[in-house]
Predict the structure.
Amino acid sequence: MIRTVSIVPAILTDNKQDYRAQVERINYFTRRVQIDITDGVFAPYPTLDITNVWWPKNWAADLHLMATNPSTYLDTILKLHPSLCILHAEANEDLLPIFESLKQADIKTGVALLPSTYPGDVKQYIDTADHVMVFAGQLGVQGSPADLMQMEKIAIIRGMKPDVEIGWDGGANITNVRALAHADLDVINVGSAISQANNPAEVFQSLVAEIDKNGVVL
């Protein structure tokens, strides 16, 4: 049975003006958006500082924080109050106390797994999280190719926690989005395929139509 899959545009930039432009370009056709933030350490390319992040009130914002020590961002995250905050299992600190603080503030928690991370090795995070991200791209970069071998993790995660929301991040585009949608995912984050398009709304609708197809021909 094919699950309902959401296409979620992703914003990644190091520039305030570009951030605003990306928000304005996608605001009229979507309400769930992933905002990617890096610390310049965990991911080698620093983005816009989290203190400059904002979003329209009608958005359900997923905050994906690629940081070595995410606890240093906790106060700001609580003030921003995203719908979901995704932290990396490979961070240099225990995520469970941070998850607890987020849950107390009614913020859903997510854990992202880099390609080298086996889901069973971070069971304590998956057991606690509302969302598990299978990361299959290059940290802090949009437009990198998808490592489709990471799809093997989806069944493992689903077996560990059947009802958890599972997301995909990295290289999703019109050529692979249907295969991803049929791999038991709930969310497919799309970066450059939308953000670099001449007509982002048209690409978004094409991606939605593609995942709704049931077979090879239709």
Observations:
- Residues 200-211 form the longest helix (12 residues).
- The chain has one domain: 6-211.
